[in-house]
Amino acid sequence: MPRIRAAIVGTGNIAHFHVKALQALPDEVEVVAAVDIDSARLMEFCASHRIGHRYADIEQMLASQRPELVHLCTPPGVHHAQVLVCLQAGASVVVEKPPTLTLHELDELAAAQGPAGPWLATVFQHQFGSGAQRLRSMMADGVLGRPLLAVCNTTWLRTQDYFDAPWRGRWDTEGGGPTMGHGIHQMDLLGSILGDWEEVSAVVRQQARMMETEDVSLAHVIFANGAVASVVNSVVSPREESYLRFDFERATVELTHLYGYGDDDWRISPAPGFEEQVSAAWKSASHGIGSSHGAQFQAVIHGLRTGSAPPVTTADARRTMQLVAGIYASAFQRRRIRPADLGPDSPFYSRMDGAGARW
Ligand SMILES: NC(=O)c1ccc[n+]([C@@H]2O[C@H](COP(=O)([O-])OP(=O)(O)OC[C@H]3O[C@@H](n4cnc5c(N)ncnc54)[C@H](O)[C@@H]3O)[C@@H](O)[C@H]2O)c1
Asked: Which of 43, 76, 71 is nearest to 58 (CA)?
């Protein structure tokens, strides 16, 4: 099969992970072009990754290169417009998280996909390590029993200078603080394990950073399967950690890491009486793949090659974006929020700060 022609738009920090992961699949993908409005950065990026064509404008690139796949590594505020022009040009898109600033924008993009493509996939790479796959398959096989309780902590540190970048820490350009920009990875993994959520209650705070959005959020979430979770998102935590804990009837499963995990970052503690059964299932399930952009992109390429919507699909990303919107709606409206409260009539459908943040 001919190689997929791919382009990268936005050549800042995360774009390097994208190009390296794509160039590690040389039989499948060819990175033919890159786009950035910062010409010096673009030039350096193309030189160091040996990319042949450079553009300052995404539409010019689409017209002259006609790529089948575009990776958007630009700030969140431009994702919606850039995804739309790519889909309209017939190119499938891999967009960095968060896919859009709002649920409204995400629904528009979902509708702009074709039944047989072009498609939009969102980067949530933590779903793709073997630890997460192992946990999902053990749940599906019934080895762990019912999920009862979960903890989902993103306690990170971003000093004030991090928010000097003009798009960070603002509702109009980043769409939120650590709930939207940082903890979204852990919350996405939580949702990929526990499924749909039914109710959220939350508090958001501005504890220490000077910015428009929150720097801390705390939530409790009830899932449709009956599990309850406590969720903390922070950018003011000097000892940084990403921590997920799932208490099932027959075992506790924990993941402790920072920005990416391997097999050693997972721990399972069987309940009394289930040691042999649980340990045997944990050992025999898949191993060896860490969470990474590369792990997700292999699944994306497989989806494109086989004519199916590549992961993470807009429907899956919506569950996570809806939880983010639910946390802000609960905090600013001072009430419990269910998914049905976040329809087109809600101010939180069109802005993550709704009708305006209420601290
Ligand atoms: N998946 C992850 O683990 C992860 C980690 C970090 C960042 N991200 C996400 O990646 C995205 C980019 O973050 P970053 O840290 O790389 O930002 P960055 O500021 O380092 O890079 C963004 C680049 O986009 C360029 N750009 C801005 N507007 C543009 C436009 N209209 N057309 C073309 N280029 C444009 C900028 O000049 C810059 O080079 C964000 O959505 C962020 O949330 C994801």
From this structure: 71
Q: Is the CB of 341 under 6 A from ligand 1?
A: no
DSSP letters for 121-168: EE--GGGGSHHHHHHHHHHHTTSS--EEEEEEEEEEE--GGGGGSTTT
> Among 71, 79, 93, 96, which is best to mutate for testing ligand 1, by the most ligand atoms less than 8 A from CB?
96
Ligand 1 neighbourhood includes 97 CB (under 6 angstroms):
yes
Helix (H, G, I), strand (E, B) or coil at 84: helix
Give pTM, 2 decimals: 0.97
Q: Ligand 1: distance of its center to the CA of 11 in Å?
A: 7
The residues near 320 (Cβ < 8 Å, ≥ 6 apart) are 124, 184, 187, 188, 191
Kindly state if the Cβ of 21 falls inside 6 Å of ligand 1: no
Ligand 1 pocket check for 10: Cβ under 6 Å: yes
Say if residue 111 is exposed, middle or buried (CB neighbours under 10 Å; 0-12, 13-18, 19+). Answer: exposed
Map out the domains of the chain with their CATH numbers: 4-122 (3.40.50.720), 146-248 (3.30.360.10)
Mutate which of 42, 74, 95, 233 for ligand 1? The one with the most ligand atoms within 8 Å of its CB, which is: 74
Tens digit of pLDDT per residue, the chain (359 long)?
Answer: 899 999 999 999 999 999 999 999 999 999 999 999 999 999 999 999 999 999 999 999 999 999 999 999 999 999 999 999 999 999 999 999 999 999 999 999 999 999 999 999 999 999 999 999 999 999 999 999 999 999 999 999 999 999 999 999 999 999 999 999 999 999 999 999 999 999 999 999 999 999 999 999 999 999 999 999 999 999 999 999 999 999 999 999 999 999 999 999 999 999 999 999 999 999 998 899 999 999 999 999 999 999 999 999 999 999 999 999 999 999 999 999 999 999 999 999 999 999 999 99
Q: Is the CB of 35 under 6 A from ligand 1?
A: yes
